[in-house]
Specification:
By secondary structure, this protein is α/β, with parallel strands linked by helices. It contains eight helices and seven strands, in the order ββαβαααβαβααβαβ. The strands form two sheets. It has a five-stranded parallel beta sheet, sandwiched between helices. A two-stranded antiparallel sheet has the order 1-7.
Amino acid sequence: MKLNKELRIAVSGKSGCGNTTVSTLLSEKLGIKLINYTFRQLALEKGLTLAQVIENAKNDDSYDEYVDKHQVELALKESCVLGSRLAIWMLKEADFKIYLLASDEIRAQRVFNREGGDLDEIKRFTEMRDSEDSRRYLKLYGIDNEKYDFVDLVVDTSKYTPDEIVELILDRLERLNFIKR
């Protein structure tokens, strides 16, 4: 796989849409850096749970601002796949933007499969997290994360495996002359 130019790809989707999996596989196939700096990584760095970071972020904008600024700074340094909830909005310089989606039920089931726990609790947590994320994004940046009609590719991840999604993306990148296989 050869890049025809420096390439920055932004991949977004809500929790459980396959964002991390697809971004990781895509960066590996392209041989470029993966940037996936999220509240999860921030929680690990601060020694907090993800739920604590989300709760803290309700009243402290510095959590969002740090994560969002830091990931864009990293992405501007080199060819990369930036995978985050706001990547398609925040990385204005992205050459190719992808939005991944799936039903609430499928998303909750994926989180359950990945992390275990109580499925009903995961559904409630996911619903709360979606609501809080949307509220914060609108407040902080004026971003409505339900509006993604400007992206280059929208993929319903319930219809394809992660490998098939990556192939769809690579096919499109090749047709647009971003890569040569």
